[in-house]
Design a protein that fits this description.
CATH topology: Rossmann fold
Radius of gyration: 17 Å
Oligomer: single chain
Strand content: 5-15%
Number of helices: 9
Strand order of the largest sheet: 2-1-3-4-5
Distance between the termini: 28 Å
Number of strands: 5
Shape: globular
Order of helices and strands: HHEHHEHEHHEHEH
Helix content: 40-55%
Number of domains: 1
CATH class: Alpha Beta
């Protein structure tokens, strides 16, 4: 799946400024607000069904939305409608980085009966200017841990704006396809394809998808996920 050139061009100073302003504000609220959104589990776990774990940051957690509006919940409904017997578990944590993901992946994978891990991390590494090499190493270890447990991985990518500098941008962008090639895992180049910088599909912060944006994000992920699915399990 190739990057949409027009979308790539739009990821510029405007996008970075919005991310810095919005995410910094979100981080500050997280430090001072005891009602910080917690990871959702959608729906209640049942040991009899193989699991798909949606593992990521606020884009996965469904920041600013109800549980039923989040992409993991919508994905569950899509699977049910199409006759797939999977349970989708929302393991998204707002503000999480690749390092945070690495620190909790063992605990998540120990949940048992996990067939697929949808790995969506990197946006907060970009926000914090984490060297792409460090992000790559963390994601590499997460994928390795998942594969060691015979868990399939769908890797979701993120774009970096030109304002980060050409070297940083290129290294960041290359991380996702290179890891997908190394581990031979399916790869979604840009999880916010068709959503980023479109006011009608984003919340007031201009960063997180709104209800309609979540539907597009779900469709983006499902397109790459479907070939990994099995019926009759």
């Amino acid at each position: 799946m190739s990057l949409n050139i027009r979308t790539f061009a739009l990821i510029s100073f405007t996008f970075l400024a919005a991310v810095l302003a919005g995410c910094s504000a979100s981080a500050e609220r997280s430090r001072n607000d005891s009602t910080e959104p917690k990871p959702l589990i959608t729906p209640a776990e049942t040991a009899s069904r193989p699991k798909i774990v949606a593992f990521g940051d606020s884009l996965t957690a469904g920041f600013g939305l109800t549980e039923r509006e989040s992409y993991p919940y919508l994905l569950q409904q899509r699977l049910n409608d199409e006759g797939y017997n999977y349970e989708v578990v929302n393991a998204g944590v707002s503000g999480d980085t690749s390092l945070g993901g690495l620190e909790r992946i063992d605990w998540v994978l120990d949940g048992g009966s996990i067939e697929i891990l949808i790995l969506e991390l990197g946006a907060n590494d970009l926000l914090r200017g984490v060297p792409p090499a460090k992000m790559r190493d963390n994601l590499d270890k997460i994928i390795t841990k998942a594969k060691a447990r015979n868990v399939q991985v769908l890797l979701c990518g993120m774009l970096a704006p030109p304002t980060m500098g050409s070297d940083y941008q290129r290294a960041f962008l290359d991380t996702f396809p290179e890891l997908a090639e190394k581990h031979k895992v399916p790869y979604l180049p840009f999880v916010l394809e068709g959503i980023a910088l479109k006011k009608e599909f984003n919340q007031a912060d201009g960063i997180h998808p709104n209800v309609e944006g979540e539907k597009i994000m779900t469709a983006n992920i499902y397109k790459e996920l479907k070939p990994m699915l099995k019926k009759g399990i």
